Amino acid sequence: MTNLHRHAPLRVALVGLGTVGGGVIRLLETNGDLIARRAGCPIQIVAISARDRNKDRGVDLSPYEWVDDMTTLATRDDVDVVVELIGGADGPALTLARQCLTVGKPFVTANKAMLAHHGLDLARLAETGGIALKYEAAVAGGIPVIKGMREGAAANEIARVYGILNGTCNYILTTMEKEGRSFADVLKEAQELGFAEADPSFDIDGVDAAHKLTILASLAFGTELDFDSIAVTGIRHVIAADIAEAAALGYRIRLVGMAQNGPEGLFQRVHPMLVPVDHPLAHVDGSLNAVVAEGNFVGRLFFQGRGAGDGPTASAVVADLIDVARDEYGDAFAMPVAALTPQQTADAGARMGRAYLRFKVKDQPGVLAEIAAATRDAGVSIESMIQRGANQEDGVLVAIVTHAGEERCVRQTLERLAGSDSLLDTPMVMHILD
Q: By the 8 A CB rule, do 57 and 17 touch?
């Protein structure tokens, strides 16, 4: 039921005071009056908690009660809702989530890893207590894609959902594209600018995008969360030559998370792909995120915006708090947990599509014939083959674009070439977005 007459403040406990936590405080301070009118009541932070009490976070924390033991927030009568921004699939975040939902305390989080691994259990607890489990900030920052999928597109059967789900990877790829620089060089710059962590593997190896895709797939298809079935490949092996070849062919390289459900099962993949230049995803630059959902009545929906940072993510957190203040929330994954269906994993090898294959090979006679024979024997039809000039140190680059065919044939090509003395490096495979 929507509460249109609430006047008492919604009292918030904020756990985690990093970039996003500070953004939530600044947003509530700056837009507090507007938010109160939209929520039907003031939204006030009454307690805060984080690991380091003395760290300078660029915001005044003196108006708020500091709590050392965050677990006490679940049972405090003067806290109406807990916001968790500490991250991590397990550990303190999961403990706090379970405590809050068990005792009937609404819970707002930006924690995609926790939801990808434990979302069903947490949704059951919320459902049992008839309380809110909200997570708009967990996917694509300030883009309202969770609300759009759960509410705006709720009447549609979604054929597939896909998009650019990690701003760090997109910044690296689009900078390489514009400036012709190496992956390592741009990654270092991204770390200096704060776009990438000191240990960037979570982002550049595709794990962060896979967590988000898990959530989107469940919302899109009404299936159980299934992180373990996602095939994940990151961008660390994309080289400048790949981007140049893609451009020459009329494509741009993007790390794309894609999910599709059908009679053959649930297909989920995070993988660098060649995106046609006339596709909207090809024009998503820098640290922006974008999500595409294809509905049977609504057609193609395209969500784009800033996918990270204090402002956008804080905006999503506070939007969830407004829903809690209004008592506007339903099942966490758009339907009761019991209605979410388990799905077998689709055989990716049976998928039809085109692919880009790049080989780094020795500059010697017979190499192209060897590659051509492997593709022929595996049943791969070659649309084009390009060989770039020799370099004694790096060898020769050979790039192939295939005609549409079963993906298993591409895999079999690589298996036939495995161990070849002609190859100087592991081949790179990128599928082409149709």
A: yes
DSSP 208-252: HHHHHHHHHHHHHH-B---GGG-EE--STT--HHHHHHHHHHTEE
Here the tokens at position 251 are 């494509």
Q: Looking at the predicted structure, is the pLDDT value of residue 175 above 70?
A: yes
Predicted pLDDT at 2? 41
Q: What is the pTM of this model?
A: 0.94
User: Buried (b) or exposed (e) across 266-277, using 16+ Cβ within 10 A?
Assistant: bbbbbbbbbbee
User: Does residue 212 have an active-site annotation?
Assistant: yes
Contacts of 298 (CB under 8 A, 6+ apart): 153, 156
At 7, the pLDDT band (50, 70, 90 cuts) reads confident
Structural contact between residues 160 and 257, judged by C-beta atoms closer than 8 angstroms:
no
Averaged pLDDT for residues 150-167: 94
Q: Which of 346, 350, 347, 345 is nearest to 406 (CA)?
A: 350
> What are the Cα distances from residue 144, in Å, to 62, 135, 195, 243, 319?
32, 10, 21, 31, 9
Q: Could you say which of 105, 112, 134, 212 is catalytic? A: 212
Side by side, which strands form the sheet with 43-49?
Answer: 65-66, 43-49, 10-15, 81-84, 107-109, 133-134
Q: Is 178 exposed, middle or buried (0-12, 13-18, 19+ CB in 10 A)?
A: exposed
For residue 401, give both structure tokens.
């674009």
The confidence score (pLDDT) of residue 378 equals 97
Pairing of strands 405-406, 352-353: antiparallel
DSSP secondary-structure letter at 345?
A: B
Confidence label for 6 from pLDDT (cuts 50, 70 and 90): low
CA distance 403 to 412: 15
What is the pLDDT at residue 342?
Answer: 94
For residue 151, the model assigns a pLDDT of 92
Give me the percent of the chain exceeding a pLDDT of 90. Answer: 87
Q: Give the separation between CA 336 and CA 271, rounded to whole angstroms.
A: 31
Among 6, 16, 26, 133, which residue's Cα sits nearest to residue 73?
16
Query: For all residues of the chain together, what is the average pLDDT?
Result: 93
Tokens at 247, concatenated: 């451009």
Predicted confidence (pLDDT) at residue 391 exceeds the cutoff of 80: no
Q: Which two tokens stand for residue 102?
A: 């068990």
d(CA 155, CA 157): 7
Number of Cβ within 10 Å of residue 246's Cβ equals: 27
